[in-house]
Amino acid sequence: MDGNGRWAMDKGLPRYAGHREGANRLKEVVREAKKIGVKALTAFAFSTENWNRPKKEIDFLFSHMVKFLNNYKNEFIEKGIKFQAIGRRDRLSREVLKAIKNVEEATKNNKSFTFSVAIDYGGRWDIVNAARNITLDCQKKKISAMDINEDLFNSYMSLSNVVKPDLLIRTSGECRVSNFLIWDLAYSEFYFTEIYWPDFDKKELHRAIKAYSTRERRFGVIHD
Predict the structure, then answer these.
(1) CA 217, CA 224: separation in Å to the nearest integer?
(2) Which of 104, 137, 192, 210 has its CA 20 to 30 A from that of 94?
(3) Which of these is catalytic: 10, 24, 50, 199?
């Protein structure tokens, strides 16, 4: 969800105005994605590198994240949306952790749609964290080194409970992965758009999915 700050600056607004509008757009996209039959959506909200931003901006992002979760909780419950946060939790405040756990617990049995938010997340961290936990389980003799294959490794990854992403959407003209879901995106299709995230509405979502639908996914297989 890239371009919040640039969207705001182009309009002569403070950066936080872009983040606020970006949160509104996220609600719209989640609602529309579920409506058209998407089963899982993962949003990159805060990366491990984002700690390098000004403290004032970081504080606003997390305070707004708490408001987003608290205000959206009932809709998650009513519409059968399962919410989960992926990423590190040891650097999050008690307030943020409380909001995350509260919504996760309230929606854990929902099955029609999984909405994951990556908070203090990095793709390299995810892989290293999985390798660390596999090593610990080997030491505890829960598994052996000979048990390790792609399926087992995947079971230790943050998104092990959902299908791998079919489509990655990145806004604002940036054409890179930026340490997002490195393991999970191995066979995903990529869609890049110049649109800033606060302007990425449901029409833009349909445009991205339409572009995806025209692509032939071979997974290494040759089709006649």
Answers:
(1) 13
(2) 137
(3) 50
Q: Cα–Cα distance between 76 and 105 in angstroms, integer? A: 11
Q: Where are the domains of the chain?
A: 4-121+167-213, 122-162
Sole residue written with tokens 């919504």: 103
Beta bridge partners of 145: none
Q: What is the rounded distance in angstroms from the CA atom of residue 169 to the CA atom of residue 133?
A: 30
Active-site position among 2, 120, 126, 184: 2
pLDDT digits (tens, 9 = 90+) for 130-170: 999 999 999 999 999 999 999 999 999 999 999 999 999 99
Residue type, 215: R
Tokens of residue 9, six digits: 């600056």
Active site residue 199: no
Q: Which of 47, 219, 196 is nearest to 117 (CA)?
A: 47
Q: Is residue 2 among the annotated active site residues? A: yes
Burial pattern 113-148, b for ≥16 Cβ within 10 A else e, equals: bbbbbbbbbbbebbbebbeeebeebeeeeeeeeeeb
Asked if 111 and 80 count as a contact pair (C-beta separation under 8 A), the reply is yes
CATH topology assigned to domain 4-121+167-213: Undecaprenyl pyrophosphate synthetase (3.40.1180)
Query: pLDDT tens digits for 48-81?
Result: 999 999 999 999 999 999 999 999 999 999 999 9
Q: Against a cut of 0.90, is the pTM above it? A: yes
